[in-house]
Amino acid sequence: MDKLSPKQPGFIAQEIRFLKQLTNKRIKATLPAPALLGERMWDPVKSAKAYPTRDAFVQDCVPILRREAELLRDEGVSILQIDDPHLCLFVDPDVRKQYDDADRAADFAVDMDNQVIDGLKLAVHLCRRAGARARGEAEHRGGYDPILKQLGRLKVGHITMEFTTPGAGDMSVFQRLPEHIEIGLGCVNCQPGQIDSAETIVARVEMALKYLAPEQITLNPDCGFAPGSAADVSIDEAYAKLQNEVAAARHLRDKHG
In percent, how much of the chain has pLDDT > 90? Predict the structure, then answer.
């Protein structure tokens, strides 16, 4: 096995270039977190020749992702988001038990994210549903408290945190994040067959408004409308959820704007 190297640098920026021909709306682009790639792609046997440790593999992902981030910045994306469900695994006590030092592992994930995004204005998405190991088969429970220290170290201005999961904990954790952080509030359930009403979405946002100013909140569906890559979600269902999210946003702007 050879060391990692980019095979097609800028392929995501190429997609953004095409998308800009189709819309004048703001565009968000996403990149996987380095530690997420290590969690899902490193193999202790198959990778051993080039990368005897997972951490070494993750570290070599950083410059490749960093270059992709720079190309997306140059393409003019409005929001560049790092997807890091791996970091969010450390909210689960059962997952933390699998590591000799869970805090060190979570700190390493943050350090790798920060190396990718240093000097860029970015967001980080924390996924509750997907599960880095189970792709939707596991629902990791636990509030965000165990990783608040790590979240405070992220060099970002925006963190997407999901709160439709029953075990996601209390929104009072927002009070313990740096004051400059905007929150992408996961307030639309992504489970197939469950379509939240606009009123339900509004109620979730109102709970967050007890701890955050209105201008600190943007509305998001949890995890891209699906709890895992194998989930079967129709485009009509996703559209209905988006319609209700837009209706909720309009109501909240009228009330709090």
Answer: 70
Q: Which two tokens stand for residue 250?
A: 């309009």
State pLDDT tens for residues 200-215.
999 999 999 999 999 9
Q: How far apart are CA 192 and CA 56, in angstroms?
A: 38
Q: Give the residue-averaged pLDDT of 54-79.
A: 94
> So what's the pLDDT on residue 133?
35
What does each C-alpha distance from 93 to 60, 121, 141, 176, 211 come to in angstroms?
A: 29, 32, 8, 21, 26
Amino acid at 37: L
Characterize 72-84 residue by residue with b for buried, 16 or more Cβ atoms within 10 angstroms of its Cβ, and e for exposed. Answer: bbebebebbbbbb
Instruction: Name which of 125, 123, 222, 221 is nearest 180 in CA terms.
Output: 123
Domains present along the chain, CATH in parentheses = 11-186 (3.20.20.210)
The residues that bridge with 79 in the sheet, in sequence order, are 28
> Whole-prediction pTM value?
0.84
